[in-house]
Amino acid sequence: MALSDHEKKLLDQIEQTLRTEDPGLESSLRSARRRPPASTFAIAAIASLVIGFVVLFTGLRLKDSLGTVLGVLGYVMIVAAGESGVQALRGKSGPRRLRLKRPSRPSTS
Q1: How far apart are CA 77 and CA 79, in angstroms?
Q2: What is the pLDDT of residues 19-78, one digit of tens each?
Q3: What is the phi/psi pair of residue 33, to 5°?
Q4: What is the pTM of this model?
Q5: Cα 14 from Cα 82, distance rounded (Å)
């Protein structure tokens, strides 16, 4: 639901008032949005990798269809953990925001 012009003006006024009254608020809110360090994601990837191997070898030990399902699940976990670990070491880890492009307006010439 889009805001009306009046609501947008009120919101701008509130933002301006908060900036003038408490200039440190904006910087503290920005610092709260920081992502955890890449080492956190690397440690999580290593833990997932170990769990994936445990699930894979457990599936290999079982001889029925549950063993096949566990083996496939373990393999998928290993691949996913490896990919997230590589991304963490490259510094591209953590949650990402989708950046949608705004549609360009057709020219009215």
Answers
A1: 6
A2: 788 777 777 766 655 666 777 888 888 999 999 999 999 999 998 899 999 999 999 999
A3: -90, 5
A4: 0.52
A5: 46
